[in-house]
User: What shape does this take?
Amino acid sequence: MRAPTSWLAELVGMDVPPSGEQVAADLVRVGLEEEALHAGEVSGPLVVGRVLDKTDEPQKNGKTIHFCHVDVGRAEPQEIVCGAHNFEPGDLVVVILPGGRLGDFEIGARKTYGHMSAGMICSERELGLGDDHDGIIVLTEYFFGDPVTVASLTPGQDALPLLGLDEEVVEVNVTPDRGYCFSMRGIAREYALSTGRAGAFRDPVGPDVVQEPMATDAGYPVRLIDEGRIHGVAGCDRYVARVARGVDATAPTPRWMKRRLTQMGMRPVNVVVDVTNYVMLLTGQPLHAFDVAALSSSLEVRRARAGETLTTLDGVDRVLDPEDLLITDGGVTPLAIAGVMGGAECEVSDETRDILIESAHFDPVSVARSSRRHKLSTEASRRFERGVDPQIAGAVAELAVRLVVELAGGQVEVEVTDVDRRTPRTAITFDPGLVWQLTEPGYRSTGPAPAGLSHDDVVAALVSLGCAVEEITDHQGEGFAPVRVMPPSWRPDLSTGPDLVEEVARLRGYDCIPSVLPTAPGGRGLTREQRGMRLVGSTLAGLGFTEVWSYPFISPAVFDACGFSEHDERRRVVRLANPLSEEAPCLRTSVLDSLLATVRLNVRRGAKDVALYETGLVFLPKENAASAPVPQVGVRPEDTVLRLMAEAIPSQPRRVAWAACGDASSEGPWGQARPWSASDVIAAAVSMGQVFGVPLQVAAAPERAPWHPGRAACVRTEDGVVVGYAGEVHPKVCLALDLPARTCAAELDLELLWAAVGGPVQAGALSTYPVAHTDVALVVPESVPAAEVAQALRDGAGDDLEDVVLFDVFRGDQIGSGLKSLAYRLSFRAANRTLTTAEVSTARDAAIAVAAQRMDAVQRV
Assistant: This one.
């Protein structure tokens, strides 16, 4: 929402507009943050000029230009070339001189049409004052009706303040609960509260400014049909209609109004539409003007019927939904989507002579749903969905219709339509002690009020907000006497005691609330899962991977790209009813579904060497899961409903995945670059088990997409539980996903990994005795995994075995076809003595015996 400082000054009774920076600082004090400061788009020397002469010069292209001498208050007239034709010698015009800027365009002296033109004579569009570009501004006509200003014009006079181009506009970020600040009325009230000028603020639709007429029986017929059929709340609970006849829709909009609309970011259209927009910006109440000639005899507010359509003012034919609230002609023809946008059939045009001004109050939820359903975010919908003051509908209609007649002629009908079905608001019984309880640490309800804030201060703050406060005199007991508070009509967000506390704290100043950190209770801290997540992250970061967070939304096409079979369980997905993007309507079943896309994005952005990891949830639908019931809004669901909702939620195990491509270590004086390989990601998986104290085994993985069947490993616990896979991504998958060749990836199920963790890992005592090494080479069938041979050696070697490392694999004619030789280094160390050679040899032979027994291993000599 934009707020010109000059308009703000008018509403709070200030003679001189404050600076934009000061306004922004004052507003942030009451919780309204500055979004931006807008100064004029025109800068530099912009002056009044008098045309001394004008020479017409026809051009070869059929266009006639004018070579002029213009008095700009300097010793010598300026020579300027101009293409407009609506001025004569002696006219006062607006001239921007070299060194000035029109937006991003810098003005300079340049040769054009055979002359040196030192400046430019400006039009309304060039200065951002309107859309007129057919002619330049002639100031005697521009200020017609203002003889004082015309008489004061002199060549060389600064035109920036003359045209209001030096005014600053503060753009305010309005939060959803502060919808009343989508108006100058609301922002001015907040500014007055912040600066201590609450008494000077004059409500532009207050009873002392606008006398709201009483409803009459003979007003334009309006029927409200909807009675809360959609979600228990009536779509429209107040509808005011006023009629003006004999207006001239072609009458010019006053320049001051055009200027205000332009400053607020709106485009002037015609005098009727401009008045409705101006009044909306002033009061926050959206209005709509209907051409009475296009109506039959009555208006009806109802929900849409199946198959109905409406061509809206933007020229789009829209198919209406049964939940859309409509304004209809006699209940038959749709005229507008209530609170969102009107239709083209009843649009005000140059031929319009009789208009009907609509000022209504629509349900915020209904407007918000229609706005999103039709992808129509309008000035009206943004206000209605945040809450519009229903109390001012009649006064705003009166203000608008009187302003139309004042500017466009005609006569206002004395008959007034005001269909009012509002539900009265209930007062809040409020204990002022709640202010200190929530804002003053250590306050006791029976103690005195903290220094600087009394009971009367709280009441005064509420009254300044517009609340009606009534003292409850029959209070008995300790503490402060409660009060009965009726929030103002423009604050639908105030409904509880804490809401009022927040308002008092806001006016008092958030900086007055002490910052006291709560004392952490003993015996608590990070959960087991949180500690595990941190350990996972620090481990992978230490191995050279960078953490990323990707959206869990995917396209079903990713399953084909990853090579999943038709019957792969990972193709069963949870589909979103209202996805952020139609291209990604499903929730992922593997973290790699989204992580590989992130790798691709980084590679496309020029990253050559990429190593990423992500921890996150996957979503696995349950077998034959029933749909979750939709509970009633506003009340706690019953336990049965909560249980059914929980049963319908898909399983969401937590997983970690990592992927890498390019070089693991770059080329340098130390040697050649080393690319990432399958062994790197497999080693990272083993490291993941080590940090949790869970020995993980790796074995050749069966065929499982998206990994290469010959360059991937299955990662499992000693009990045989598969916790994940790691290895090189299949070349076809790399091609389908546009990944670099030989990209590597891994994914582990953290739930299964944490389940394998026993009690706390107890570190053993370190032995100070020397280690003894011995090597053994075993010939085994090609199908026997090296990890199983290593496990057999561990089981047979005894308690003094410290480590087993595979250091060589050999295949050749010397050992025969279908066989391989695996060479292991066994490291022995005793805790209480130095091992003898005989003890090491005995342990080694026992290890070989177990390997021979389990997989027919033969020692190679």
